[in-house]
Amino acid sequence: MKILKAFLAIIFVLSVGVVAAHEEHKDTVLEDESIVVFNAWVRMMPSSQKITAAYMVIENNLDHEIILESATSANAEVVEIHQMTTENGQMVMNMVNALSIPAKGEVVLSEGGYHLMLINLKKATKVDDLIPITLHIKGQDDVMINAKVSDKMPFNEKFCSCCSMPKKSK
After folding, report:
1. How confident is the model at residue 2 (pLDDT cuts 50, 70, 90)?
2. Could you tell me the CATH number of the domain that includes residue 74?
3. How many Cβ atoms sit within 10 Å of the Cβ of residue 5?
4. DSSP element (H, E) containing 96
5. Percentage of the chain surpassing pLDDT 70?
6. CB of 51 within 8 A of CB of 120?
7. Does 17 reside within a domain?
8. What CA–CA distance (Å, rounded) separates 24 from 115?
């Protein structure tokens, strides 16, 4: 019983710290608010690692679907769109050619789902660095964001704290 109480106390303290450390913010809003990017962040990796992942919420306020064709960053030689899926009970990561964002909808790039892989990083990153990323959307102006480097997943209404999956809207 004492172990359970201690465990629950630790979980409570950790969750309070995560909530206090992160709050939802708009990273980019096009002038006409047609495309909005929320909560862009990059996973902190040891300096010996030359690869990391970027996560965000891309909101499409247009009356038609948009297609994220690619992304680039001055901090990485290559940026690829990837998706995690389960095949035969195993998590598998695959590159995808493009990502559809539905009309009046959003796509959450998160751990365990779609995300951007930043490959061959040009310099080591540290917590709170800002990583410039440009999203290239078919038929639209490029969307430029600065994703904050973090060693933990943001906690807000767009993400579930236990698995980084999007929470359902009320």
Report:
1. very low
2. 2.60.40.1890
3. 9
4. none
5. 71
6. yes
7. no
8. 18
